[in-house]
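EI: anyone free to look at a 50-residue chain?
SC: sure, send it
EI:
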Amino acid sequence: MNAASSVLGSVLAMVIAIHWGLNVTLACGAAAYLAAIALAPALRPNLGRP
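SC: here you go
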């Protein structure tokens, strides 16, 4: 899963950079990291804690 996401992410970054430029690409990357940080607690497995 991680390898597939890395490949798709790099291809998508190149497409975004070609069509809209580096600033938009960096903003999309930052938004993706912020979304991952926001969703991390919800995706963390519950290890028997109530």
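EI: The mean pLDDT is 91.
SC: 👍
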